[in-house]
Amino acid sequence: MTIAGIAGVVVLVAGSIFFTSGKxxxxxxxxxxxxxxxxxxxxxxxxxxxxxxxxxxxxxxxxVEGGQVEEKYVEDGAMLKKGDPILKLSNIDEELNLATQExxxxxxxxxxxxxxxxxxxxxxxKLNQMADVDNAFKEAERVWLLDKKLYEQKAxxxxxxxxxxxxxxxxxxxxxxxxxxxxxxxxxIKQQDIQAQEHYAQMKSALSLMRKKVxxxxxxxxxxxxxxxxDAEVGQNKNKGEHLGQLDVQNGFKVQVDVEEHxxxxxxxxxxxxxxxxxxxxxxxxxxxxxxxxxxxxxxDMQFEGVVxxxxxxxxxxxxxxxxxxxxxxxxxxxxxxxxxxxxxWIFKVSExxxxxxxxxxxxxxxNTDNYELLKGLxxxxxxxxxxxxxxxxxxxxVLKK
Length: 402
Hints:
With 402 residues, the chain is α+β, with helices and mostly antiparallel strands. The protein has helices at 2-17, 92-152, 158-215, 338-342; strands spanning 25-29, 35-37, 39-43, 46-62, 67-72, 79-80, 85-90, 218-220, 225-228, 237-238, 243-260, 272-277, 280-294, 297-305, 317-323, 328-334, 346-350, 356-361, 363-367, 371-376, 383-385, 397-401.
């Protein structure tokens, strides 16, 4: 009886799987499977991503010069106007350098004034000499012209005439030489004055830069905005270039999104996405793609298209559908667990009478979170089993039982 019972169970199991047709079959309860219908409709390839709401513009505040935090004027989260002081750093070396530079500029200015006064005095002396020489020349010329007439009239002798002629020639040469010296001296003084002015201007420029460096020890708001991420306490030492905080401009929001790296070649500025907020759908568009990959992901900046949701806040996380293609009309096959066993190469199609399901080859193209794009193997209205095939093994045909 035991042997007969075991044999009966084996026969029943074998009978439920094998039929006279030779195909392997399995009875399946329709309540435990998912039957979906192939439909024709609008298809768009998209991926689900998470985005964080951020200010549209952020200004990073870094230490231009290193120093010790001497005083904090505001706290993190404060609303600031352009030029408002945030904190002050103390740097004795820079302040001493400024004092030294100011002394050097003042000394240079004094020396330049002294040199200018000396040059003016030298010029006056040269002009006085020129006046004496010119007067002597005129007198020698007068005597020579007079003696020349007298000599022609034989009123004086050759010796007296020649003496007047020599005095005239000497006065002429002296006048020419003095005039040349005066011109050269004037040109030299002018060149020295220009050089002194240029050197003084360079020193003043250096002083201006030094004052700017010392002034930068007081960190001020470069624009209107909200101070965030302020990392500084009185007494702390901050190095040159160290990040101190940031200023969020209150002129709108953007959404920064993390995307898996294998989509990098398909994501570019201009792609659009949407998300739901307070029972409404809002649109976004990619404005910037950051190609640097960190931990297998890269970032993109998206901006709102049209209306910005009311009540949205900085730091809020949004679930976004990022479209990778335009919307087209296609055969839609609902997604399901069957894909894990078939790889999208085949599927169980339900017969027209709904009593059985058999394997058919299919070809799948693109996909999104809801549907596969069906390229061939089925037509609109066909019904298929889209739930998992994990327990079906090599079964060729399913017998559907209600």
